[in-house]
Amino acid sequence: MILAHKIQLDLTTAQREYCARACGTSRFVWNWALEEWTRQYKAGEKPNGFKLKKQFNAVKYQQFPWLESIHRDAHAQPFINLQKAFVNFFKKRAKHPTFKKKGVRDSFAVANDKLKIDGKCIRLPMIGWVCLTEQVRFNGKIMAATVSRTADRWFVSLQMDVGSYQKPRVGDGVVGIDLGIETTVTLSSGEKLNSPKALKMKMKRLRRLSRRHSRKQKGSNNRRKAANRLSKLHWRVKCQRNDWLHKLTTRICRENQSVVIEQLSVKNMMANRRLARAISDESWYEFCRQLGYKAQIYGTEVITAPKFYPSSKTCSNCGHAKVELALDERTYACSECGFVGDRDLNAARNLSRLGLSRSNACGHHVRPVRTKAVMVEAGTRPCSLVNTN
């Protein structure tokens, strides 16, 4: 199993300048490779990342001599990333790769044989020893590292192969989970949990900072400072949301042996302009993603209900299913047995019953766990995968 730990770096001014130049180098090489790929493809050739890398290495120091001051990992990894991007595009798993812009997801790669970790310090090529805000939480082989910038902070993400990583559960229950906007998570046990709604709480300030940023002259230092303040607030919203999600998903996986959730088409639901902001603030997709990999760690089975399973329309008392159920009907009233209860709790109990009586004949299936690296960010220690006892 591969886990990724993202830790903040304590950089000096000179180290920050180098990281910014390394990010610019990585962005420049990506854009160069994408432009050359497009040109060759239109000319009837069959480009790939390896050929483009070989072509670039033959002329890079002659045409771009400033690359000598940047470690070669920063201008080698973009070709690999571009190759993966086009593979996903041709397999219709992603959109066509686009050119990168300055200041948007700035990052550069570092090979695993070029770095060294000693306690709360890490040695990066061309930078030297850098202090970390915390120690690495996992023991294993470092597969790769990525240095990135978020707002005015720099982070290093270490991808580590930890082998078979398991943690014990404290309970063996079966729980059904209903996701919603008014109540973020409703458990079949009757517990209702609301997210901090970080975006909604910070919306007034976000609008104010966005107006201030738009009024500044383009290219000025004041506009750069305003952009930095705006990005810091967006980062704070993200941290508050992820902190709540990590704590909740860890608790659910630790206390249950089976978790039943709905199969939501979040992308299609986001097309509704009236609900898009509220849905994105709840982060349903991230909730399901975290459940997927934490279930593998705790040995919990995650069951995804069929896409058109009528969890909200079915009575949890007698099993009678309604033909229609309006979205504004928050109380479920059964016309057969007279049961009256909360709509979300009724759906969660139906999902829980689905997990208790699941069988292969009913079309239930275990949600596949993603094999890509799992991200654990610094500053989320209370809800991390390590300190949960």
Question: Can you tell me about this structure?
Answer:
The structure is a single chain. By secondary structure, the protein is an alpha+beta fold. The protein has two domains: 2-161, no CATH class; 168-372, no CATH class. The chain is 39% helix and 20% strand. It is built from nine helices and 16 strands. The protein has helices spanning 13-42, 49-63, 77-90, 198-215, 221-255, 266-269, 276-282, 284-298, 343-356; strands spanning 2-10, 107-111, 116-118, 121-124, 128-132, 141-150, 153-161, 173-179, 185-187, 192-193, 256-261, 301-304, 331-333, 340-342, 365-366, 374-377. The strands form three sheets. Strands 1, 2, 3, 4, 5, 6, 7 and 16 form an eight-stranded mixed β-sheet that branches. Strand 13 and strand 14 (340-342) form a beta hairpin. Helix 1 crosses helix 3, helix 2 (49-63) packs antiparallel against helix 3 and helix 5 (221-255) packs across helix 8. The protein is elongated and about 80 Å long. Mean pLDDT is 87; it is low at 359-373 and 378-389.
